[in-house]
Amino acid sequence: MMTQRQSRLSGFDNRTLFLLGDEAAAYGALYAGCDFFAGYPITPASEIAEVMSRELPRVDGYYVQMEDEIASLSAVIGAVWAGAKAMTATSGPGFSLMQENIGYAIMTETPCVIIDVQRSGPSTGQATKPAQGDVLQARWGTHGDHEIIALAPSSVQECFELTVESFNLAEKYRIPVILLMDGEIGHLRESITFPAYEDVAREERRLAEPEVESFGGEDVPPMSHFGEGRFIHVTGSTHKASGMRDVSTQAVHEDLVTRLCRKIVDACAEISSVEEDFVDGAKIGVLAYGATARPARGAVLEARRAGCAVDFLRLITIWPFPEEAVKRLADRVDTILVPEMNLGQIAREVERFTAAPVLPLSKIGGVPHTIDEILDAIRANGSGSGSTVGQRP
Amino acid sequence: MNIRFSGFGGQGIVLSGYIFGVAAVFDGKQALQTQSYGSESRGGGCRSDVIISEDEIFELAPPRLDVLVALSQAAYDAYLPALREDGTLILEDDLVDTGNGSGHRTFRIKATDIAHKKFGRKIMANMVMLGFICAIVEAVSREGLERAILDNVPKGTEEMNQQAFEEGYRIGKGEPG
Amino acid sequence: MRKEIQLAGFGGQGIVLSGLILGEAAILDGMNAVQTQSYGPESRGGAARSDVIISDAPIDYPKVVSPDILVVLSQPAYDKYRSEVGKKAMLIIDSDLVESDESALCVPFSKLADELGRRIVANVIMLGTLAKVSECVTRDSLERAVLRNIPKGTEELNLKALDAGFRSA
Amino acid sequence: MPSQDARVQQMIEINEELCKGCDICIDFCPLQVLAISEIINRKGYYPPKVVDEEKCIGCRLCELVCPEFAITICNE
Amino acid sequence: MDKQGYDAIRKLLGESPAFVQGDVACAYGAVLAGCRYFAGYPITPATETAESMASLMPGCGGTYIQMEDEIASIAAVIGASWAGEKAMTTTSGPGFSLMQENIGYACMTETPCVIVNVQRSGPSTGQPTEPAQGDMMQARWGSHGDYELIALVPNSVQECLDLVIEAFNLSERFRVPVIVLTDGEVGHMREKTVIPEFDELKLVERETPTVPRESYVPFGGGEAAVPPMGFFGLGYRTYVTGLTHTEKGLPATSSAEEHTKLVSRLCEKIRQASESLVRIEERYLDEAEFAVVSYGITSRVALNAVRTLRRRKKKIGYLRLIGLWPFPEERLLGLSKQVKGILVPEMNLGQVYHPIREAVAGKCRVAHLPKIGGEIHTPAEIVEAVQKLMGGRRR
Amino acid sequence: MFNKAERIREYLRSEMLPSIFCSGCGNGNVLNYTLRAIDELRIDIDKVVFISGIGCSSRLPGYIDADGLHTTHGRAIAFATGVKTANPDLTVIIFTGDGDCAGIGGNHLIHAARRNVDLTVIEMNNYNYGMTGGQLSPTTPVEGRTTTSPFGNLEEPFDLAALVVGAGAPFVARWPVGYPYETVDTIKRGIEKKGFSFIEILTPCPTGYSPESGLKGNRQIWDWYKRNTLLASKYRQLSDEERADEDRMLIGVLQDVEKREFTDEWAKLVAQFAASRE
Amino acid sequence: MNDEPIIPGPARPLKPHRLLKFLRQEILPTAFCPGCGCGTVLNSFAQAVEELSIDPKDMVFVTGIGCSSWIPSPYFKGDTLHTTHGRPIAFATGVKIMRPDLKVVVIAGDGDIAGIGGNHLVHAARRNIDITVLMVNNWNYGMTGGQVSPATPFGVPTTTTPYDNPEHPLEAAELVAAAGANYVSRWTTYHVFPLMESIQKALEIEGFSFIEILSQCPVSYGKMVDMRRASDFLKFYRDQSVRVHKAKEMSAEELEGKIVVGKLVERQRSEFVTSLRRINERFREG
Fold this sequence. Notes:
The complex is a heteroheptamer. Chain F has eleven helices and ten strands. By secondary structure, chain F is α/β, with parallel strands linked by helices. Chain F has one domain (5-276): Rossmann fold (3-Layer(aba) Sandwich), CATH 3.40.50. In chain F, the strands form two sheets. Chain F has an eight-stranded mixed sheet with strand order 2-1-3-4-8-7-10-9, sandwiched between helices. A two-stranded antiparallel ribbon of chain F has the order 5-6. In chain F, helix 2 packs across helix 7 and helix 5 (106-115) packs across helix 6. By secondary structure, chain G is of the alpha/beta class. Classes of the chains: A alpha/beta, B alpha/beta, C alpha/beta, D alpha+beta, E alpha/beta, F alpha/beta, G alpha/beta. Chains in contact: A-B, A-E, A-F, A-G, B-D, B-E, B-F, C-E, C-G, D-F, E-F, E-G, F-G. Chains A and E meet through helix 5, strand 6, helix 6, helix 9 and helix 13 of A and helix 5, strand 6, helix 6, helix 9 and helix 12 of E. Strand 9 of chain A pairs antiparallel with strand 2 of chain B, so a sheet runs across the interface.
């Protein structure tokens, strides 16, 4: 017997559609098993909410529009503890408002997905223009020590696939996963081919056996849901494996927060996903992610056609930072070029793993890089002479 | 093939680009469509770009345009420099003044007026325009375009849209009314 | 000279205020002083502790390493903190509230306060005793510090309490 | 309230480029002084035109209800 | 502030030296710096500043208001700043997270204001009464989009007072929000605190435009300029928006050039001044082969440990970051060329450790000594870690 | 008699026109009415600050040549509280929409009403989030179809004026956009009121969502608002039975009482301190 | 909260109180200050659950930050989501939508529910989602030591209004009634019997139900108004309260300083989650 979700979604099986990145991400969520969405309108993420409001009732899921972004993430977390796979979507200003509750989700190990369709900031900035300015905010935006998982799609197809992946990682590691889209990818349309519903790998929630504690015992403990007579206690305060508060014992806090970080840091290799395309003799490497990776890839291919050996590394996982892949690149080339739609955020991270010059190719103002701009920068630095593209701030 | 639709918000610019992209996908090609608009829902500057290709598309914005469709003076002034010398210019006759002309292969149509007078709905102007473009530019097939239109207009308005498209196409082909 | 003093008891016994007054007295003596506290989320009834370090040199490390004096005004505080404190510390306890089988200076602070008519001045009596036996602050400065931190109209009562403390030492 | 015996000459000035063709002025003019024009402004709207200025008593309702500050009544 | 005004405030503050909590010293510093507006919301361990400000404000003609949440608190502070007052709010982690959106707004609109974050142990509600240094990176990266701001880290009650004054001065000088990152330990500890005398007090007053309204450019003046502030009621009719705006302040949300010009200037005005913003305390660095780099309450333990090691004839140096953002990269790079290794003890799982490694760029070893759970490091822990670093082989 | 439109235009930043508003949007009317109220009150425009949040109606301060503070979404009233309490000499007017004011900013709204700081809030209720393309708002009527309530709204909407009265505001009024003379008069009263005044103006949103959708032409739309609202003065004359049957929204001045005002109270406190020092 | 109480209980075993089965007994006594009204609310609530024979397994508690949030978190033994400050109602919305079969109860204070969380309160009331909210109003932020709260009466001194509160208090119950809730009442810890009945009613009624419970804080609030004993408050509640029907006949002047207690609203507006589920039913049927 087909579930309602199966019968609705299998209607899309193997079809090629011409969709917005936002829409593709929404469908990705539906394929991943998302049955709850709470959100608040914001450009350029509203289309995700709009698709969810149309589609969720058809797959026996629930959509609610809350009074603000704080409430949206609150409702998502509440729904997860009541058994849902849940998601919200927003952009910069809303993402800033969500920061407190992102920390809450990390502390309570609540699996959920938050899509940030990045737009040009700070503040209200250019509401309709794309940017990649929230990359470090995704890592450091909430108070206190924590780790996070964040992914960045580079195509509409990937908006779909990485949303599925975000749900899977969220369940696997019991952590909020941030899908760092950008206004460019969110608002561009291109063709996307849906997989067969049956072929999508879905990580299902691991539930605790009776008497097993939900907040300790192993690095990623199994969860419990409300309404099962377990009388579970979920708190953002420092707590013991039982879930009960203990806010004054140093060791309890240290054990908890260290474990919350360790479960991600130790799994970095497993979580990390990159696209590596290295060629012999490259002196320069281009490292890019999200929308910027598109013209970057185009420029790399163009440069190679012109006889210049260039390495290409695309970060699909942004957090935890794919150190090993970056080190591999750093070991090969003399110069790393990092085109970004911000003032050099990931370039800073790259610097920690290489003594080679890291050249940010920053561009802000809502216009993505062109192939020519990146190509020019490759040409100017391809000899490895280290002449500068953008000054390190 | 890089096509830019440009004008004001509310003229159906984004929808036009979208329909072109869908038509390309129906034709079995790769297509990428983006849009750019201001905060205004109506009346602000707006553009929609479509890149149609047989191969994988890396660009996010077309560096040079093969076709520029301009439905406002501001759009014409802003985007003319991006049009290739051998590119095609398609204009809303009532709203764009080219002065002494730009030297491009240029086609003009009073799409808004036709829509207003013939169909009683200014909003049909973009369908008239799509028909007109379809007759002039060989980017996507007419069948693909008509299918894309029918899939994407509100139920109950298919016939009027079809007629508006037909009207534009007829004018584009220089056929008598 | 560096003196480390720990005051412990229930929340509500004026533990934190006592540390404040002691530190302020030291400042009036021209010394350096750091006062810190730890308490649970309860406003009343939880264990409270107030640490004071008095030194003639600048105080870099602001935590008590090995207290010279431990004053305990409740049994739970005694049970909780006594084991953390080395044996070299001089122990001062409220003999009516704390049971201890080790050598300590035992003064019935709360009973003496009751005799003065107000249980609330027990901590001021304690301060007097502490100042007398430890000589960490001068009596003059302590009097001034007490007067700066009490409600108007209770000066006489508090000075009496301080005197009782000095006499009990 | 507007005085009925405002016999001074009225001049209705319409800034066509500010107009967005909402037609509120036309709809609410108590004496039908205004009507939709045939010209398209640069934004693609049909602004109002004065069809019967003689009837205008200068009540200024059109001025007050115009959301775009496109209409002015000038007393001479 | 004139002498008469100063004397009136001194009367409110009472005797010097005072024996007060770090939180209270923050309030003293604010009042001395000319702060006449405070909006806040109760949160442990920052509430004492609000309570002090509530007592002090009416006496010096200022305003205290308790808002409905931290979002509203920072909003009211920004509003008050545009109404012409020096304004401040204080909070701790959860409230700081809520303020992030409006901190970005203050950067974008170049609103001078001071935010004191008395850090407690997180994430989330964590341990409300326990100190931590867990918001160091959040202070730099917590709001969306590209921006720069200034953050200072006091390590004593005296410095709470001094650095809040400094924070107001920098805030007015650069028209940027300045964050003072204290922690629950410094905030709740009482120490001897000297109140500066009138002639010791150096205050930066807000620059207002002197040109006529027609020629005033509220948000312009070249690549790293800090324009004078034509705040409300002066007749400059300034339009202030968090949207991308032109030099005139009017929205220009579709222009890549205007956005690049604006956001670059907002960042450059801080980046280009970063050398002058360096606030560092260096000790025992002569001939040092290793160094402990620390800040805040931890630096006091570090100093104690370094003294111990020096007594044992170990060549250990001490460097304390007082100004954290913009990060003193050049100075750290310089240090890395001198020493073989740097130890970074922090009350977090390794935060300032990150920018230190970026700055050092592999020139020397960097080890970190994290400690969380609400207890500050002990000198012995730092001594041990330094010895381990000294014994360790260079990678 | 109203002042000449030229005079009103002098309050505008001409370089910002034409506005971003869609044809038929009521926000321009509200701007027009507000400026007329200010002009008639003869307030020095240099001492007026216009404050707004995010949304279509929040763009209004950008068109006025005066001090303006365009803030973050939902927070306009909180920012305004800062401006007014820091400098009570300024007249502070807030332009906001239903989503900004009652959605994300609902908490600031009720607390400002309670606190009673002398602010004038002009809230333009168009029943949806217009700027982001017509999503459900807290005032969208039951069963209203928006882009995020494609199957009809399930939630009850706020009666914002009633809510603000419930929160304690001393001056509350509501008009549909089609009452120009009354609205100008009410805005004047709101500005003159010492205390928190809340004026809701029902404005059509022809692009996003309108409860009157289906009607053509602004005459019909404005008439729809008149038909579907009832003057509070008339309501007061109804019998209990008639009232029970009445489900139209009440318009007019709905609350006008005297209450101690925050900045006044604070000034008294400061004066006490100043007196005690002398 | 330290799970091992610092104040040891009596050496003898606890008496088998009939309501103890509802509590996490291992962590008693509670951390509430002596005389705090939170214990009274906990007691009344447990009574109501007992009267209605609700199995605690069928309940979920969602709380915020503050003293009264501790009533269910940790003391009442049920599934508990202890959330961020001001947000419990928003969290509860997610829980209720997914599990409408469970009774979702929010217990938190005036600062949490009506201060920082005021927006979620009015929106949940408007949405009329089937959640029961008990707002324990002690007129101040007690946990942080007695700051002014949105419920603090005009003219009262607190630690952040040392020269008396210049603001007006929020009448939370009236506000929630105006926002659209199905059931609203106000009681005090003096009115324990009607309070218990009201809690029963609130738990039974479908839609958003809200009870404002005036509850004494003799330590943080009491120290500022010199009402240091719980009984000072209870007497005050007894003497100053007026029943709703009587209040209707009184003038504004007569009502000055009075506490209006009783049921303010009871109505049957459609409930949100029921409507939401109905849409899904439509698609389920095809």
